[in-house]
Amino acid sequence: MNEKTTPSKPRHVRDVSEWHKTTDVAVIGFGGAGSCAAIEAADAGSRVMIFEAASASGGSTALSSAEVYMGGNGGTRVQRECGLEDKSEDMYNYLMQAGGDFADSAKVKNYVDGSVDHFDWLVSMGAKYKNSIYNERAIMAMTDDCLLYTGSEKAWPYRDIAKPCPRGHNLEVEGDNGGPMLMGILTEQVESRDINVHYDSRALTLIVDDSNSVVGIVVRIDQQELNIKAEKGVILCAGGFVMNEEMLKKYAPSLLKASIPIGNPNDTGFGIKMGMSVGGAAINMHDGFVTLPYYPPSSLTYGILVNASGQRFINEDCYHGRVGYHCLQQPGDRIYLVFSAEDFGEYETQSYLNADIAGTGETLCELEEELGLPNGVLQNTVETYNINAAKGEDPLLHKSDEWLKPIKAPFAALDCTPGRGAFYPYFTLGGLDTLPSGEVVTSNGDVIPGLYAAGRTACGIPRTGACYSSGLSVGDATFTGRMAGKQAAKRK
Ligand SMILES: Cc1cc2nc3c(=O)[nH]c(=O)nc-3n(C[C@H](O)[C@H](O)[C@H](O)COP(=O)(O)OP(=O)(O)OC[C@H]3O[C@@H](n4cnc5c(N)ncnc54)[C@H](O)[C@@H]3O)c2cc1C
Fold it and tell me: What is the distance between the alpha carbons of residues 181 and 225, in angstroms, rounded to a whole number?
């Protein structure tokens, strides 16, 4: 019986008795990264085939809001038309800080330098962005407005490191419909070119030669394993590994404390495993995006988050992802959002949080008792917070004065404890180590000839949930897909 073909074991070219198809560039996955890689490789004159496991294009990109993080270089058309100047230096400094200890300066620089060009390219593909700003503190614009703060730019410590500027770009579409729209546009662009698309076609493993160069890919189509020759290379754009529990347990167990993995069912890490099988380094595998969507309503930002010791731990005006990440890091088994009942606002109709009311009280003592917190600590936390908030200050955690006001009776608290109902969606940020060009490298930094990766299969610009900003994943996937497509097409 033949040995099962698995992504962790490449096929050697000597075991290939027949090439069933030949192309220059084989792109694995038809989501955000794959579509952009295919378009650029085709536009550079290469023959391109896309192999997509699903029956249609889209991937997680089509499930997303398609917010794209762009700016710098003086500003995108939208930023400039809205009267905003966005310096590259500010965008670079913000992204480097937001990337944490593992930020990749070469990639960040390349992304920032190419960001306005990327905006123009998306527009040239057919993406429409209105010259407008959505001024609410929100997770996404539910109107067709474009610009939105999608990170912690205005919050401490980032506001002191780089001049804040909104860089999240939403497509001109009402509601949360950006993802299907973007993928519709990119799919049309692929279809308008001489790109050979194969749906229901799962890539199984890479094909390598004696020098460990990648020369093709094994794909299963109609129950048959086909050997595809890729004369210039294979671009892995197969998403991340958030749907692979075994890989999560092995690489990113802390993410399992969050509640819902989000992505498409093929986010199983096959692309990453294929890259690893030929010596590609997998980096940053422990980190991921996780969020606690406690706004809208934005009025809940006037509240404070406390842990099982009744202590605050984050400035609550940060982006919801940064807050969610820090909630998961807290010791103890309780996280509460404590607020004035008057700030409950439109929680029941607007919120995605799904957190239950854990307690209410006319006094802090009553609330504390109901929440089962150690005697006096919540009272102390709120009283200290209130004294400073009344002066427009937060010496402890530096919440901006825009969101500071004393918390008044009647008091209420939402139960944001992980595992007790609150919505904590997550996805992975680790992947194959690549150069800014998309070439996959080994742990020594050597390029693996013929192998490229982009989007969530690679480890790109977003590196940590500790300061993720929305728009960095679709931004990174579409941008790095383009880089990899161009680079593969250049290969002799
Ligand atoms: C609900 C939701 C909202 C989000 N909102 C945003 C947002 O607004 N902005 C933002 O920046 N990020 C957002 N994200 C994250 C972002 O959507 C993804 O990280 C990004 O789109 C990934 O793009 P990709 O091209 O790497 O992967 P995908 O778009 O997932 O494409 C990967 C493709 O590869 C295919 N595939 C997988 N394995 C194989 C195989 N072995 N053979 C062949 N094909 C295979 C898959 O079927 C899929 O079509 C959101 C995510 C979700 C789930």
Answer: 33
For 448-492, write each residue's pLDDT tens digit. Answer: 999 999 999 999 999 999 999 999 999 999 999 999 999 999 998
Domains of the chain by start residue, with CATH: 11-63+179-289+427-490 (3.50.50.60), 68-175 (no CATH), 298-415 (3.90.700.10)
Tell the residue nearest (CA) to atom 17 of ligand 1.
61
Q: How far apart are CA 232 and CA 484, in angstroms?
A: 12
| Residue 367 burial (CB count, 10 A) | 24
| Burial class for 306, CB neighbours closer than 10 Å (0-12, 13-18, 19+) | buried
Q: Quick: pLDDT tens for 245-262.
A: 999 999 999 999 999 999
Q: Answer yes or no: is the C-beta of 66 below 6 A from any ligand 1 atom.
A: yes
At residue 3, the pLDDT reads 82
Q: In which region does residue 310 sit, left (phi positive, over 0), alpha (psi from -120 to 50) or beta (all else)?
A: left
CA of 67 to the centre of ligand 1 (A): 13
Compute, in angstroms, the gap from residue 304 CA to the centroid of ligand 1: 33
User: Does residue 33 line the site of ligand 1, with CB under 6 A?
Assistant: yes
**d(CA 184, ligand 1 centre) in Å:** 14
| Residue nearest (by alpha carbon) to ligand 1 atom 48 | 59
β-bridge pairing 260-261 and 425-428: parallel
| pLDDT tens, residue by residue, 295-317 | 999 999 999 999 999 999 999 99
User: How many Å lie between the centroid of ligand 1 and the Cα of residue 239?
Assistant: 5
Percent of the chain with pLDDT over 70: 100
- Ligand 1 centroid to Cα of residue 197, in Å, is 18
| Number of residues written out for the chain | 492
pLDDT digits (tens, 9 = 90+) for 325-383: 999 999 999 999 999 999 999 999 989 899 999 999 999 999 999 999 999 999 999 99
pTM: 0.97
